[in-house]
Amino acid sequence: MLLEFFGRGSAFTDEHNSAFFTDGSDLVLIDHSLPAFNRLRRRHELACADAAGQGFKHIYIIVTHTHSDHIGGIPLLIHYAYYVWHTPVTIAAASEEVGGLLRILFDKIEGCEDGSYEIVPADTLKWVNKVIPTRHTPALDGKCFGYLLNIGGKKAVYTGDTRTLEPFLPYIDGDTELYCEAAAFNSGVHLFIDDIIPTLKEIAAGGAKVYLMHLDNEEAILKAIDGTDISFVTVYDGS
Ligand SMILES: [Zn+2]
Ligand SMILES: [Zn+2]
Questions:
Q1: 7-18 core/surface letters (b: 16 or more CB in 10 A; e: else)
Q2: 54 found inside a domain
Q3: To 10 degrees, the CA torsion angle through 188, 10, 135, 184?
Q4: Which of 6, 159, 169, 202 lies at 20 to 30 Å from 38 by C-alpha?
Q5: CA 113–ligand 2 middle distance (angstroms)
Q6: What pTM value is reported for the model?
């Protein structure tokens, strides 16, 4: 798996979906929830205690959309990285509009210090090959995105929260890892597992690895993928 996870649950679970990978001394997060923050803190302390004695030198956060289970941990991380770790934080926004909304949250609501973070367009990061607009809840129309990522020369497609797989299909081939949200409850704003199983099976048959994330009911979804090549993402347990 190219990505690790601090949590793989949907909004109304204990562990919100939060992905990450490292590239040298850079830590790259995809969204960051409050429950993920404590796990990140432990992870950073472990990195500080390794042979090189250095933690992460720069933290990047690629944002998919502004629901609180996806951005709830970011302001706290900005404060902590600034005051305690003295580590620069760069937030990658998929559009200017989303960047502006995040700025209101960080500056006006949270009171983040001047210079404690920067916001850049997501497609300027070396790990982002393509920003993929998608549709999720009607209230956030035009403000939800997934990504085609390049992690160490390998391809990962990350859906974020979405109600459709269509925008992602052109970017998936046999060498891709697909990180796909899935729901057992048919809400209309997420990918209902029974609807997407046939497409996911086809994708897996083509050689891609298919990992499910942002799960609302693990038991029910596990039953639905029984006997397929589809699996869940694994969660970093803090060790
Ligand atoms: Zn969510
Ligand atoms: Zn959402």
A1: bbbbbebebbbb
A2: yes
A3: -30
A4: 159
A5: 27
A6: 0.95
11 found inside a domain: yes
For ligand 2, the distance from its centroid to the CA atom of residue 229, given in whole angstroms, is 26
| Structural domain count of the chain | 1
Do residues 72 and 61 touch, judged by C-beta distance below 8 A?
Answer: no
Q: What is the pLDDT of residue 42?
A: 82
Segments of the chain with pLDDT less than 50: none
- 222: Cβ–Cβ under 8 A, 6 or more apart, which residues? 232
Domain carrying residue 20: 4-232
Output the CA 19–ligand 2 centroid distance in Å: 15
**Predicted local confidence at residue 239, as pLDDT:** 58
Distance 90 CA to ligand 2 centre (A): 22
Identify the three-state secondary structure at position 42.
helix
Q: Residue 41 maps to which CATH number?
A: 3.60.15.10
Ligand 1 center to 17 CA (angstroms): 7
Ligand 1 centroid–CA 11 distance in Å is: 5
| Residue 42 within a domain | yes
CA of 78 to the centre of ligand 2 (A): 21
Centre of ligand 1 to C-alpha 18, Å, is 10
DSSP state at residue 183: B
* Burial zone of 77 (CB within 10 Å; 0-12 exposed, 13-18 middle, 19+ buried): buried
